Amino acid sequence: MNVVIVGAGASGLVCAIRALENGHKVTILERNNKVLKKLLLTGNGRCNFWNENMDKKYYYTSDLLSLETILEKKDLVLPFFDSLALIYKSNNGYLYPFTGQAISVYNALLNKALYKGANIILNKYVKRIKKENNKFMIECEDEVFEADKVVLATGSMARPNLGSDGNGYNLAQSFGHHINPVYPALVQLESKESFLKDWDGVRTLAEITLEENGKIIKKEMGELQLTSYGISGIAIFNISSLVSKGLALGKKEVIKINFAPWCLNKDKLKEYLDYQFSLLPNYNLKQILEGFLNYKIVNIIFKLLKLNDLVKWNNAPKEKIIDYIMNFPLIITGTKSFKEAQTATGGIPLEEINPKTMESKLVKGLYLIGEILDVDGICGGYNLGFAWMSAIIAGDNI
Ligand SMILES: Cc1cc2nc3c(=O)[nH]c(=O)nc-3n(C[C@H](O)[C@H](O)[C@H](O)COP(=O)(O)OP(=O)(O)OC[C@H]3O[C@@H](n4cnc5c(N)ncnc54)[C@H](O)[C@@H]3O)c2cc1C
Q1: DSSP string, 233-284
Q2: Ligand 1 neighbourhood includes 345 CB (under 6 angstroms)
Q3: Residue 370's closest CA among 96, 36, 40?
Q4: pLDDT tens figures, 22-76
Q5: With a 6 A CB cut-off, is 38 part of the ligand 1 pocket?
Q6: Which of 3.50.50.60, 3.30.70.2190, 3.40.190.290, 3.40.50.150 is the CATH number of 2-184+342-397?
Q7: Taking the mean position of all CA atoms in its chain, how far away is CA 135?
Q8: Domain parsing of the chain, residue ranges
Q9: How far is the CA of 334 from the centre of ligand 1 (A)?
Q10: Is the CB of 349 within 6 Å of ligand 1?
């Protein structure tokens, strides 16, 4: 078969290698002047390419059943990387190349694709694809390519400067595919609270609870980065997909921050504070709170409750203080844009492809893989993980 793959990103290259190994002739068309531009930036340049705990619970999608079918092929991924002579290491189940450099994964994929005979054509922007008499005509600015099968591996619209600007959705739409609304994910969250300038620069371990229209929908634990625009950090990234969608639907999104996750509950925190003040009766409240809270957070709580700097525990509004420490509310008003997002939530519904082959249910011979589909994972190697799994399935079933 003559196969054309649109996009030489993570999923495109893996699909190419697999299709070549299955005896097909493969051309990859890439709009950029080099392959795998995004991959080089992943994991802060270290490329967290897989996670040993691969499970549907780490993904957001409109079609969990199809995702489950795709996940059935997860055991093919590490042997695939072994076949590229890539040595990797695990950090609590998060897999990285042993070198700690994304360029090792880049080289491993590119070397294998070239060795197997991939025809990689750079600076080729695919404008339109048509199907005529069982053949696909892939139109670029200055050239038309013909193929028996076409794979759309164009990514989402996260980081448009790296080539994935959402144009792949239009290519899929021209074949009748639908697009579930697409929003930024794995992205920083914005707020308009007046205290943001006071907590800028704080990094702290905390538990967060996401409330949507007053209902708890997710809890996460991790290091938070408190900034002048709002809030960031892995725990925030992991809920950002839900927040993006909720805000777009006009829902009220509030994050409650527990700055004392080491303490079981509010009663225990009160017990702890009572105990400390029984040992140190001359201390004022700030002196004890600063033993476990960043001083900027202490100052904000004091400001919000209009407390005197020297107030003692016995004269303080104990319940309100404990509530702010363990249930600090932050109203979210927006997210950073696709320019900052690591991925996107939404895309072509999995319902429209056969998850055993990644072939479109609407157009025979058209395959869709990677981030163009409505699947997004949390941090930890899940997004590249989905790119590899979907690419291997397509490459093996073309
Ligand atoms: C900063 C950052 C860090 C990340 N870190 C991680 C991480 O550590 N672990 C993890 O699992 N995930 C991570 N991700 C997410 C991961 O990189 C993506 O999920 C993954 O690259 C998606 O692969 P893809 O092949 O679907 O799309 P992409 O890798 O985006 O590739 C799409 C390719 O298609 C090309 N293209 C688009 N349209 C056309 C067209 N019309 N014609 C020709 N070519 C076209 C693009 O130029 C691009 O090269 C990170 C993302 C970012 C931005």
Answers
A1: SHHHHHHHHHHHHHHHTT--EEEEEES-TTSSSHHHHHHHHHHHHHH-TT--
A2: no
A3: 36
A4: 999 999 999 999 999 999 999 999 999 999 999 999 999 999 999 999 999 999 9
A5: yes
A6: 3.50.50.60
A7: 35
A8: 2-184+342-397, 188-336
A9: 24
A10: no
